[in-house]
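Changelog-linked ticket: calcium ion example.
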Amino acid sequence: METVLIIEDEPAMLRGLEDNFRANGFSVITASDGESGLSKALDAQVDLIILDIMLPKINGYEICQILRKKGIGVPIIMLTAKSEESDIVLGLNLGADDYVTKPFSIRQLLARASALLRRTKQQGPAVYSFGPYVLDIQAMRLTCNGNDVVLSPKEFRLLEFFVTHAGRALTRDQILNAVWGYDSPSGPRCVDRFVTTLRQKVEPDPIEAYLHTYHP
Ligand code: CA
């Protein structure tokens, strides 16, 4: 059974959400202000957070930001009373995964919750290790024997793509699309450059090769 934490200060809304999530097989924890919501998010084993934005004490944006800064990657759906795009963008930038705008249909929220949970499960483990290295995807951190290895955001994305596709041969175009995106102005050769710099960081000893180049 999956546990959802609902943080919402409006009693009728909170009760409605609680009843509906319970009726759909969730175990439900509730909080009616930001402070208790944050402490429950930090203490309890939660699979999903439904997070109102305008909350007493600590608002939803701050909760989102604090959780992500602590490396807690639990999926978050924001409930926003505002439909202004800038508010939604702010929430997503602070680490929310999805949002619904009030008034919303409960069926739509439940569908989004299920889709998000499905997506999260498919992503597999968030921490990968190879040799002395540990790559923590949610914390965006690479360590070698416990010491931080500094990667640029693109190098991180590239390494993430490699570790999540370990054992597979990947073409330059696949790598380019996954890491740089379809509208990238960079040519496939920029992959080579980044692989070279990544190698310098994760293969200091050339005997221990993690990245292999294939010439079919
Ligand atoms: Ca509110």
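Closing comment: Example verified and attached. The two ends are 47 Å apart (CA to CA). The helical segments are 11-23, 34-43, 60-69, 85-93, 106-122, 153-164, 172-179, 189-202.
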